[in-house]
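Re-run with default settings, no changes from the original entry. Doing this only to confirm the output is reproducible before filing.
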Amino acid sequence: MTRKINYSMISLLQFLFAVLVIAFHSARIFPSEEWNYIQKNIISRLAVPFFIIASAFFVRWKTSINKDFEKKYIKKYIKSYLLWSLIYLPYAFMYFRSLGLPKTYLPVGIFAAIFYIGMCYHLWYLPAFLFGSWLVKQCSKQMQLLSVTLFAFLLFLIGSIETYAGYLSGTSIADAYDTYAQVLFTTRNGLFYTPIFICIGYLLYDYRNHRFVTERQGIKLIGSFLILCGEAWFIFKKPGVDKNFLIGLIPMSFFLFNWSMRTEWFKQKDGRRLKQLSVMYFFIHPAFIELLLLTPLDEVLTTYQYAWVSLIIVLLGTHLSAVGLLKIQTKRMFFIEKWQSIAFQKNRL
């Protein structure tokens, strides 16, 4: 089945979700509360689960072929994370200063940024994915994958307290969450959030030929989307701390990825460039968002004029930077391969 995977559709969705992440982090573009909610808290919320499932699926697949793949992948992942953490270190320092905390807390802040919340608001995803992967791996040594998935789902339910806080106000559960949040800020982390989607990626590979995932994919996808919309409306009426933990994201992201890798749409296209751009978009875009905040652009435009103009500028700047970095990366790989080829020929002589 792996030969029939529609990599191009997966790459296209990753690219579109990367754009949605940029729009999510940018200024509000819709004056309507309903449309803003749909954009920010339904469609855009699918991005991170989809990214996690895609990564987990391919790690599972490649590791089944080469047992050393996962270790190499994790090492490369950590190097990439540390590089981007270094790039966003100035932003982290400015954010720390804005909190008005004593400088003696700086080492604690750096530690928390690297291992938990990220040097910038989008980098939380990387340590969360790493910890979630480690947790699932450790649990898998003691339990079958389906049992680990159930455990991960229970963790997700606990994490959803912050999303359902509006309905839990005044209860002991809400009080317990408030105590937790005073120390660890959020349940959107590698313990409560990422494990369930990592398990989904593994399940979709392990059970890739099961009737449940091969039949009636479209109906299941539409049904799961309706469930997500219904839950989102329920939260919209009485919002909690945030909207990260929509339980409907679990079936929706499951069936969306399953559909994307099986559909014939876009299958004949080459999606590798979109995949590369989506990664660069994710890492680069906050730099342009934060730089725009230093300009007087918001003073000469209305609120929603600024939102759309700034979004276009951020998208354009991010795209041009991504293209430039990918060209540099390609040339670097070319020279490395050429040098290795020359060195190999010299050794033969």
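Residues 70 and 76 are 10 Å apart (CA to CA). The radius of gyration is 22 Å.
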